[in-house]
């Protein structure tokens, strides 16, 4: 028999949680469906990097469909009305979402690293991660950027790779920022037996859901081609 803890939240917190998860559902679905449409409409966006973008969008749409709406309903009702088995299913969806997002970001980072740093050694063992990619971006800005004036198509392609790395770094930073507080609190509680205030835990937990819709915002701000396609979709232009 599963014991359910009594919901002791105030009405204000209940309403806040319910509205919050409802808003997260709308933002995640709208933003990531926009990514789907952009990749479907524009063939030029269908490159290797954007395949990873598509993978992240699939994971985020899945969690926005099978997790957030039910959390909103359960919060509003102050109980879980969907049964034990569905609760286990939702928990699995959340774990898969985290795992898929992390694995996709790692694979994207490795892809960008070898495209930018070791373009001729794509098949060697992976030795470096996000830090190496970011250092290459800084070196490129300081030393290579002036030489791009009048460069050939190869130089233009490399410049595009650098831009892709910037987007990647922003995506990784966004993911880490939204998940770091929650992970730290869990480690402190379960690893060091340090009691964390329930308000802090609640805020940290709520912040993790931001990672489900922040990626389309990053693409729209930092990726010119994606931003243009987003505008075309929203303005109903071909």
From TrEMBL:
CDD domains named in the record: 7tm_classA_rhodopsin-like
Membrane topology field: Multi-pass membrane protein
Residue ranges crossing the lipid bilayer per the database entry: 20-39, 51-74, 86-110, 167-188, 194-218
Entry keyword annotation includes Cytoplasm: no
Subcellular location: Cell membrane
Keyword tags: Cell membrane, G-protein coupled receptor, Membrane, Receptor, Transducer, Transmembrane, Transmembrane helix
Cross-referenced Gene3D superfamilies: Rhodopsin 7-helix transmembrane proteins
UniProt keyword Cell membrane, yes or no: yes
Alphabetized Pfam families for the sequence: 7tm_1
Positions of the G-protein coupled receptors family 1 profile domain: 31-122
SUPFAM superfamilies in the record: Family A G protein-coupled receptor-like (SSF81321)
GO molecular function, one term: G protein-coupled receptor activity
Predominant subcellular localization, coarse grouping: membrane
One cellular-component annotation, GO: plasma membrane
PANTHER family in the cross-refs: G PROTEIN-COUPLED RECEPTOR
Family of this protein: Belongs to the G-protein coupled receptor 1 family.
The protein, known as: G-protein coupled receptors family 1 profile domain-containing protein
Organism listed in the record: Pocillopora meandrina
Taxonomic path: Eukaryota, Metazoa, Cnidaria, Anthozoa, Hexacorallia
């Amino acid at each position: 028999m599963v014991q359910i803890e009594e919901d002791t939240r105030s009405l204000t917190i209940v309403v806040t949680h319910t509205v919050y998860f409802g808003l997260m559902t709308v933002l995640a679905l709208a933003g990531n469906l926009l990514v789907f449409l952009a990749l479907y409409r524009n063939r030029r966006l269908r490159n290797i990097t954007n395949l990873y973008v598509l993978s992240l969008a699939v994971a985020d749409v899945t969690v926005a469909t099978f997790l957030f709406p039910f959390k909103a309903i359960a919060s509003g009702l102050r109980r879980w009305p969907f049964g034990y088995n569905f609760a286990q299913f939702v928990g699995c969806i959340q774990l898969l979402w985290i795992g898929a997002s992390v694995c996709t970001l790692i694979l994207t980072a490795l892809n960008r690293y070898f495209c930018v740093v070791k373009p001729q050694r794509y098949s060697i063992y992976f030795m470096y991660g996000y830090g190496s990619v970011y250092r290459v971006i800084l070196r490129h800005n300081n030393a290579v950027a002036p030489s791009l004036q009048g460069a050939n198509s190869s130089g233009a392609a490399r410049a595009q790779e650098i831009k892709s790395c910037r987007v990647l770094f922003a995506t990784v930073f966004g993911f880490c920022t939204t998940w770091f507080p929650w992970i730290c609190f869990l480690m402190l509680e379960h690893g060091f037996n340090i009691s964390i205030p329930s308000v802090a835990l609640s805020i940290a937990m709520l912040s993790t859901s931001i990672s489900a819709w922040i990626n389309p915002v990053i693409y729209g701000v930092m990726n010119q081609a994606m931003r243009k396609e987003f505008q075309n979709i929203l303005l109903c232009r071909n």
